[in-house]
Amino acid sequence: MLLISCPWCGPRDETEYHYGGQAHVPYPENPANLTDEQWAEYVFYRDNPKGPFAERWMHSTGCRRWFNVLRDTATHEVLASYRLSEPRPGGNR
Amino acid sequence: MAEPTEAGPVRLRRSPLAHLEERMRAATVTGARGVTLTEWPFITMVNLRVDPASEAADRIEKTLGAPLPRQCGHTTASGPHTVVWLGPDEWLVLSQAEGTAVATELKEALGGDPGSVVDVSANRTTLELSGPAARQVLEKGCPLDLHPRAFGPGQAVSTTVGPVAVLLWQVDGAPTYRLLPRSSFADYLARWLIDAMSEYRGPEVP
Q1: Which of B72, B144, B160 sits opposite A8 (nearest CB)?
Q2: What is the pLDDT of residues B19-69, one digit of tens each?
Q3: Is A61's Cβ below 8 Å from some Cβ in B?
Q4: Which of the residues A1, A2, A4, A12 would you substitute to probe the B interface, choosing the one with the greatest number of B C-beta atoms within 10 Å?
Q5: CA B127, CA A15: separation in Å to the nearest integer?
């Protein structure tokens, strides 16, 4: 079980959260201009790194806020959690 | 037109745990490992959302007579009202006063500013678990650290007890906890607690 620290509520068990996929995937500026392939990449294609991975989580049984978590996919170590308004700690990959 | 409809539902309303009242009373354990479970039905609950830095928040704090808690776990109280932190811009106002009156008062304080005031009294019911063994009962299913060094009277957090999401509020050091599950989960949670309480009837197994 992961122990994830919510930026507002502090450390809570993983069962209190919902997972929301990869973080920092920007919505296309002009979605209408995208080709089908580019749109499919935006909708379906995600990174799958071995190591630190920034992902979105929601504290669903707590404060119901979305935030980002930096997690090592190999060790499951939670490296950091930060608010959506904050940049990824340590910069982008 | 409003009067007859208001008198009707209030008189006719039925708490989500009315059918378990007898069983909750029968589950009472007395003595050094005592624990009791009771329902406090129909407590007024008003969900409040507003930017805590706004003027509307100041007006609401004046209306309530208590500051809005700014941190997870904190509560503030004034007269019949207790304000519980739900999120950075969301609170639950628990009150002994009548629901429509509280909601109207808060709506007026909010005025036209961004935010919302909703009477959600029917959303949850309140279970009170009290007695020397109350903490042990909760610890069977609550992932939170409830030891007095981490959690004490006047604190309230959203968490889970067993599989049920509840708002857990400690009111005194007896300890007495109030659990606020959604109404439709209350039956399950009450049965879960009655079962968890049963072992304290007998002597402690070392």
Answers
A1: B72
A2: 999 999 999 999 999 999 999 999 999 999 999 999 999 999 999 999 999
A3: yes
A4: A12
A5: 23
Tokens standing for residue B27:
């589950």
Instruction: Calculate the alpha carbon distances from B51 to B73, B91, B115 in Å.
Output: 18, 11, 7
Return the residue matching tokens 């669903």.
A60
Which CATH architecture describes the domain B44-119?
2-Layer Sandwich (3.30)
Question: What is the structure's pLDDT at B6?
Answer: 56
Within-domain flag for A42:
no
Instruction: For chain B, say whether A72 makes contact (Cβ under 8 Å).
Output: no
The predicted-structure confidence for B112-151, as pLDDT tens digits, reads as follows 999 999 999 999 999 999 999 999 999 999 999 999 999 9
Strands B126-130, B176-181: pairing is antiparallel
User: Given CB atoms, is B90 within the 8 Å cutoff of chain A?
Assistant: yes
Q: Which of 3.40.228.10, 3.40.50.970, 3.30.1360.120, 3.40.50.2300 is the CATH number of B18-41+125-199?
A: 3.30.1360.120
Render pLDDT for A3-34 as a digit per residue (tens, 0 to 9). Answer: 999 999 999 999 999 999 999 999 999 999 99
A/B interface, count of CB pairs below 8 Å: 36
